[in-house]
Amino acid sequence: MSDRIGFMQGRLSPLVDGRIQAFPWSCWQDEFAVAEQHGFRLMEWTLDQERLYENPLLTAMGQVEITQLRQKHNIEIASLTGDCFMQSPFWKAQGAEHAQLQQDFRAVAQACSAVGISMLVLPLVDNGRLETRAQEDVLVDILQAASAMLNELRVKVVFESDFVPTELARFIDRLDPSLFGVNYDIGNSASLGMNPVEEIRAYGHRILNVHIKDRVLGGTTVPLGTGNADFDAVFAALARVGYAGNYILQTARAGDGEHAQALCRYRDMAISWIERHGA
Fold this sequence. Notes:
By secondary structure, this protein is an alpha/beta fold. It has a single domain (2-277), classed as TIM Barrel, CATH 3.20.20.150. 43% of the residues lie in helices and 17% in strands. It is built from 11 helices and 10 strands. The strands form 2 sheets. It has an 8-stranded parallel β-barrel with strand order 1-2-3-4-5-6-7-10. The protein has a two-stranded antiparallel ribbon with strand order 8-9. Helix 7 (165-172) packs parallel to helix 9 and helix 9 (196-203) runs parallel beside helix 10 (231-240). The chain is globular and about 45 Å long.
């Protein structure tokens, strides 16, 4: 079970400019050794729009270094959270920016394939949320056009969304299940007041990745077990649909700076919930 529970890149590093999540430029290499030291075997990469093409994932030398570190420390990188797409959504852009951001998407997918990342999380939340059916149609058209590339690269796109269950089920049904799925974020759903049983009943068969965090209703991320997330209901529902994928800790940062200790504590809590329900 512990091999299926990973962490969001940066969660084992000091905060960057006070942000809960950002690429840890100054110590990204060190995080592999820290992860191994604390028994983690799974990491989700995170990618910002700022300095996108400087990120080691998108440079030839960086890809070699990532591969070497992954092998040395026995760390799998199965997924990537594309915060860059939430920060600069290609489905909302116009003109030259629209073309450039689509190229960014293709470049990120190719980089994922180069280092063995098989899932690209595309966040349709906050600045990336789909506000109109026209935006949705643009996104679907672009992704359908990219299907051959994604198939060749063996990269799947999984969506994090603020849609209500029936709408997310309708949306994901528009896309090929062999290439597209859902990233279920426990904390985001709790913040939106969603019913996890209804959500997972509606589209659980399309869930390919799960983010574990806790949030208060209408509010921000808080330590696991102190917000509005109903973890027992979530993991019981995931077990009912036979979910067998990964769980990524996208949890609150430690107030005392002891981020590794907090992450290990959250991992133990997650294992307890998962094993209780057989998810």
